[in-house]
Amino acid sequence: MAKPRKGLAARRRAMGYSQESLAELLRVTPGTVGRWEQGKSTPEAWLQPRLAKVLAVSVQELIDLLNPRADERLEVRSIGSRSDQPRHDPRGAVQIRHSLDSVHGVVPLVRRALDAFDLPDDGPTRPLVEIAADVARVNEHRLEARYGALAEVLPDLLAELARAAQVAKEGQQEQQVALLRALALRAADGIAFKFGYLDLSGRIIDLIRQSAAQANDPLLVAAAEYVRTETFFASGDLGAAGRALVKAASESALSNLDDQHVAAAYGSLHMRAAVVAGRIGDPRTAKDHLREANEAAKRVSEGVYRGTAFGPQSIRIHELAVATELRDPIGIERAATWHPSAELPAERRSHYYIELGSAQHDLGHHEEAYVCIEMARDAAPQHTREHPQVKGTLASLLQHRPGNNRVVELAAWAGARAI
């Protein structure tokens, strides 16, 4: 028997809504609201962010209200901690699942915001300095793989940026809005591409490139070309990907490479071009790109430049990716002796362990493979759970290690099944 959701009803009343007025606002029936509060049904994933906003709670707080056992608040496992929450505690998995469900629910709202970029809804438009703080925050969510938190605020932020573009004066203010729009769209692509909405990702990337050009920021243009590689990964046109990256790197080299921001743009393009060459199966070209990236890294400290992490540690992660693409056991073994530091963004750290786990599996090192996936999960659980490479590795490990409880638990958590 379903348990009444007293917390949801209490929150509705505290906000001054009757079941009828809330239903009218959400465009559902009063009976639907009643069933939510009685625990007989749950709002669809796409509607949850909207309901949370109306009730002035976060999506996670809404999920707690929808949980009949409202006294058991779900907590995110601390990144990098193995002691704060038992590894087999199902609540951590439920929390992550709900966060990822909220991402899928937000995608239609992102599409709607993009459709109306030139015709945004009426609403408030804050000073650009306040909008810039939110843009920085959503990109931090992207880099730290907090996709649920990113999805929660993204549609409203995109709509506000569309309004800001309409009221911006020509010149510097207009360029600043374009820069903020490009960076916010970069965050949106972090959801679209990783969650498999490749058509939406391609559309967003085109808008990023347009916004970067309008911002008159060559470094932002270079970052847009870095992101554009995803389009070619999706289509399989790796030749075009390599040409686009080399062209963008050559244009960056026309600026002062002693400037660390220019060097980071130049190096990140070569870093990604190395992975493309590795995927094509061209070790010589991959080596040349890595050499250029390493030269650029000598001029910078590890950091995030125009939304892209770059520096000596980022290059080491890409060196592993190249070795994995080329099926180079020596390169893989060399990479396995190193671990990224906590100063790197969580998403990039987790990607290193995901790559290493896949490579170790291919080498027949099954124990090391699932340990790597556990480390990726500790670094960035949402990124790791959604990653197709993780699901593929775990699906294969289920065949090789069907009785290993750690593998079974990881596979269940990631939704992987034996091939």
Give the key terms.
single chain; 419 residues; mainly alpha; 434 Repressor (Amino-terminal Domain); 4 domains
Give a quick rundown of the structure.
The chain is built from 21 helices and two strands.
SSE arrangement:
Elements (H helix, E strand, L loop, with lengths): L5 H9 L4 H8 L3 H8 L10 H7 L4 H8 L23 H26 L12 H16 L3 H21 L4 H23 L3 H18 L2 H18 L2 H15 L7 H21 L2 H15 L5 E3 L2 E3 L1 H15 L2 H7 L10 H17 L3 H14 L1 H6 L1 H13 L4 H10 L5
Antiparallel strand pairs: 1-2
Protein name: Helix-turn-helix domain-containing protein
Organism: Lentzea sokolovensis
Keywords: DNA-binding
Can you describe what's shown?
The protein is an all-alpha fold. The chain has four domains: 1-73, 434 Repressor (Amino-terminal Domain); 114-216, no CATH class; 231-340, no CATH class; 366-419, no CATH class. 70% of the residues lie in helices and 1% in strands. The chain is built from 21 helices and two strands. It has helices at 6-14, 19-26, 30-37, 48-54, 59-66, 90-115, 128-143, 147-167, 172-194, 198-215, 218-235, 238-252, 260-280, 283-297, 312-326, 329-335, 346-362, 366-379, 381-386, 388-400, 405-414, and strands at 303-305, 308-310. It has a two-stranded antiparallel ribbon with strand order 1-2. Helix 11 (218-235) packs parallel to helix 13 and helix 13 (260-280) runs parallel beside helix 15 (312-326). The radius of gyration is 23 Å and the shape is flat.
